[in-house]
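Changelog excerpt

This revision adds worked examples to the README so contributors can see how folded entries look when concatenated. The first example is reproduced verbatim below.
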Amino acid sequence: MNDFTHFNDSGRAYMVNVGEKNITHRTATAMSRVFVNDNTFNLIKTGGMKKGDVLTTAQIAGIMGAKKTSEIIPMCHPIFINHINIEFELNEKELSVDIKAHAECDSKTGIEMEVMVACSIAALTVYDMCKAVQKDIIIKEVKLLEKTGGVHGDFKI
């Protein structure tokens, strides 16, 4: 268990102490993809979904999800988010909604979980907004693309 940071000497889960760490500027970018059929894709694209504007609703939900990350991920520290942006690309070739979240903070711990939660919640919101017209929507590839700052250094796929 020595390789895992969220277990104490007794093997019990605990929240890592970040009190001695320095505050540094940190960034992270994550993505997810939502695959839909032709009809659903066109309804999203044209704004024809009965529940309303799918992408605007998903964008707001993703931002709200990022802000609530420490409340839903048990060992995640609450952080002050300086900035978060969620962008969508309608990929006609793949019939997908490609979601990318980027966030920044000045903190003792990273912001990776916040961007991955933002992408996940945005993707789930796309599903929720579209489920009346399509039940077999697929959400894939929630992943971290890059992060900067902190003692573990930078990461980029």
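The second example, added in the same revision:
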Amino acid sequence: MAKDAKDVKSAVRERYASAALEVLGGGSGCCGTAAHCDPVTRDIYEAGDTAGLPKGAVEGSLGCGNPTALADLSPGEIVLDLGSGGGIDVLLSARRVGPRGKAYGLDMTDEMLELARRNQRDAGVENVEFLRGEIEDIPLPDASVDVIISNCVINLSADKAQVFREAHRVLRPGGRFAVSDIVSRGPLGKVVRASLKLWSACVAGALEENDYRGQLEGAGFTNIEFEVTREFTVPGVGGFVSAFVRASKPA
């Protein structure tokens, strides 16, 4: 385990602030130079999905899947994206839920929120709201959203059990949890778990599937499903997969 949750959050915030500033300055924030990121983040959206989106939303995407596709969103639903970054999945969700629905994005990094709000303005989308906060303490009322999505963010939290409890709290009865995340193929060593650099690179905080499933169940979720989308190896660290994770809050 890394030193503590504050250290992890500081490392994550620094990494993603840097990525956002790069995009705000006209560059691409995608993964920097991390060797493991390219096979994970490359080509996760179809060209038709991102057509019409601001360049900054696409360039600022740091995800490992397309949770808006697996969430099967319907018009009129309320969606919350945990760790929304540059806002690509929030904007895609807003399209799917339509003007009678709404898409929230939650992020703790000011620079990412600046990028996301700029992308919202450039896209001309009104049924979107970006919130500042942490995924362990969601600033929304109980039972206020229909669907929770997230894209390669939950692995970054040092307290995933609290993330799942908060997700369960804000979902309405019968609500859906549909995220893309990094999952470890085996136990990670103490040196890996202690590396803040590997935490912020979406590696050291990854759970094994059984642990991920157990923590979701502990928070009250049912109908838990895992679907592997990509497999990759980080040299000297271990094997990982990108996975779609689905669950529901009992009605």
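Reviewer comment on example two: The radius of gyration is 17 Å. The chain has a mean pLDDT of 88.
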